[in-house]
Amino acid sequence: MYASFSYAQSVRSDAQKARDDAIASYGGDVVRLVVTAHPLQIGDTIKAEDIVVRDWVSDLAPKDAYLNSDDVIGKEVKVAVGENVPLSTMHFTESDDELVIPNGRVALSLPMNERLGIGLHITPRTQVLGYDTTNKTTHLITKDMIALCVKEAQPAQNIPAQLVLAVYPTDVTRVLSAAATQSLRLVIPAVDVQDLKDDSQQVESEHTKEISSKSAIRRDDSPKEKDHAQKSSESGLKKNDTASSAHVTDESKHT
């Protein structure tokens, strides 16, 4: 165990010496930068174990490189980055390609929340379906929206994270109206999904089915009610028979 620890220390010392030699051979001022401890992928949130602070030749430091680890922790990676790479603002900013609006569409942004149904890590260029959902019905608004990017929340300005979508102009009003009433639900279909309901088709909700079922039960007389109704009917018939008999007797007397 001691031998393994000594070997690890030796490797780290050799790596540090190599960096020091490179800095010395290049010359110039040295700065301490925040660099990646291992590769990071798009959507990763920076944690303390993901980064280290190391010496770097100032002339080789990227523009807008981070010097303080506290400025990086908690940020979401927007561009994939390898190991031992100085982190800069470019790694946390959407690329221009993600913000290109496809021909024939317009871009709109929706505040991210739990009711929307989609998380913050949606991949750019993902197809998105939009449904308008109420207690009684659910119908498809549009089946051809495209996710462009997710804008980070700005707590200082009380601005939540925003999902930017590319939408056809004819769908904008319906999407924004559903979002305003918080009835908008977004769904991501699989590539092979073909059977999508169009706008005119409505789906009965479970709530509506439950109400219909309860109404049917109320309309169906219970056994007790049926028995009571039958007895009342029989009683009425007996009274009618008695009255008829009395009427016949009176007529006989008069005769």
From TrEMBL:
Domain SAF: start-end pairs: 31-93
CDD domains registered for this protein in UniProt: SAF_CpaB_FlgA_like (cd11614)
InterPro entries on file: SAF (IPR013974)
Region named Disordered: 198-255
Record's compositionally biased regions (Basic and acidic residues): 198-241
Pfam families, sorted: SAF
Name of the protein described by the UniProt record: Putative Flp pilus assembly protein CpaB
